[in-house]
Amino acid sequence: MPSKNTKNDVWKYIDRRGGNDECWVWTGPQGGRASELRPYFGYDGKRSIAYRLVWELVHGEEPPSDKMILHSCDNGRMPIGCCNPRHMSLGDVQQNSNDMKERERHGLPHNSVKAIKRLLQQGRQHNDIADLYGVSRELITAIANGRVYQHVKE
To answer: Which of 9, 27, 89, 151 is the most exposed place for a label (fewest CB within 10 A)?
Structure first.
């Protein structure tokens, strides 16, 4: 059965009590893969990521389909699902990837990679390091061989 919500009903599910500069927490439904839950909202028989809908309501037009909503707060995913338009900007896939890399929001934190590289220099076994950091032995080998994280210097 289609949703009875309208676009403006999205505001009912956003906790804005923190003020204009804080994250506005999504309290409504979630969707997506378990590792990437996002705030979803159904209206007029459609389903949208809530913060994309907020962008549309605030700016008067939908974000272009080739653009992503980037969050300066890093809280677009659940459990927060930030919907504060002051934390949002438009970007393409490359800009999002660059942002993730610069702010260490993907893969291992750089301090962990540095520690792994030190353990490798000390001759520790790849399996032991993998167990210590909860990652695969293959990742440790890729770090050791310089296939990944070569940009992280000790």
So the answer is: 151
